[in-house]
Amino acid sequence: MSGNSSDFSGKVWRVHEFGPPDVMQLEFLNTPDPGASEVIVKVHAAGVGPWDGWIRSGNSALPQPLPLILGSDISGEVVAVGAAVTRFRAGDQVYGVTNKRFCGGYAQYALANASMLDHKPDTIDDIAAASLPVIAVTAWQALFDQAKLERGQTVLIHGAAGNVGAYAVQFAREAGIQTFCTASSADVERVFALGADRVIDFTKTRFEDELHGVDAVIDLVGGETQTRSFEVLKMGGKLISAVSVPDQDLAAKHKVSAKFFLVDVSTESLSRISSLVARSSLELNIGATLPFDQARDAHLMLEGQLPRPKGKIVLVMPDR
């Protein structure tokens, strides 16, 4: 396909300025034709994550030219493909991320990089699929691509009851890694149920008083928790954070490596998640599901201005 405007148009949530949730505007737009390596997805459900709030408020780690359509996690049906796309064709059910800027997903028709999508497993619906991509791939890459953990090694996962943490616990269990976790009193039993070998209630116990010589720490909390984590690592161990850049002086002092990383969602990374989902090996954690037109309320939940259940927020299209 070529030209400037495709045959697909619909509602989108767009921002023309950065700010609080009330800067979000529900608009009607034509979807551009897909580039050579892109597809157009008729979105059935779109995930909502904290990074959407960071982008909306102007706090993204990436350049975000305005105006932009919010959202990155999507699940739906391919309706058009670019000239160089061979993996997908119209009618395929897919899920994944729109692009490396993590925008464009809150749309009835979303333009997406084909290299950041995978076929949706038949074992889950669109709401479940839209809840997965960024958080599940973040958990996988933290454990295996960044920390390079292997069977029999040990890991401490902070924020184990959170959206990313819950997948990290399950992936570690599947891989035969001994898993220590921190969680609040209310979440201890759930984290055990996900497969943790040991769960430390951080409201009652300092984890560094209980653990020593672990191979890696997966930090999903940041702040003081991250700083104290250096004390539990073995020499040569790794601290991997998906939250903030660790203190390199502390890393040198403790003779460990420490790094922050941004998730890199790809067809290859999603296919690992897809295979686990297809085997029903993962417990999925969907929190609030809201109609697409209530995306602003989803962002008020992100900001703590509206109550939200634990788990991933997902927007559902009216014609799904």
Supply the key terms.
Quinone Oxidoreductase, Chain A, domain 1, globular, alpha/beta, 320 residues
What can you see in these coordinates?
- The strands form 3 sheets. Strands 3, 5, 6, 7, 8, 15 and 16 form a 7-stranded mixed beta sheet that branches. A 6-stranded parallel beta sheet has the order 11-10-9-12-13-14, with helices on both faces. The chain has a 3-stranded antiparallel beta sheet with strand order 2-1-4, with no helix packed on it.
- Helix content is 26%, strand content 29%.
- It is of the alpha/beta class.
- It has 2 domains: 9-132 and 284-316, Alpha-Beta Complex (Quinone Oxidoreductase, Chain A, domain 1), CATH 3.90.180.10; 135-260, Medium-chain alcohol dehydrogenases, catalytic domain (Quinone Oxidoreductase, Chain A, domain 1).
- It is globular and about 60 Å long.
Write the layout of secondary structure elements.
Elements (H helix, E strand, L loop, with lengths): L8 E7 L9 E6 L7 E11 L1 H8 L10 E2 L3 E9 L11 E5 L11 E5 L3 E3 L6 H6 L1 H14 L7 E4 L5 H12 L3 E6 L4 H7 L3 E4 L5 H4 L3 E6 L3 H7 L3 E9 L6 H6 L3 E4 L6 H12 L7 E6 L3 H8 L9 E5 L4
Parallel strand pairs: 9-10, 9-12, 10-11, 12-13, 13-14, 15-16
Antiparallel strand pairs: 1-2, 1-4, 3-5, 3-7, 3-16, 5-6, 6-8
Short description:
The chain is an alpha/beta fold and 320 residues long.
Broad shape:
globular
Tally of DSSP β-strands? 16
Give the overall pLDDT as a whole number.
95
What is the terminal-to-terminal distance? 26 Å
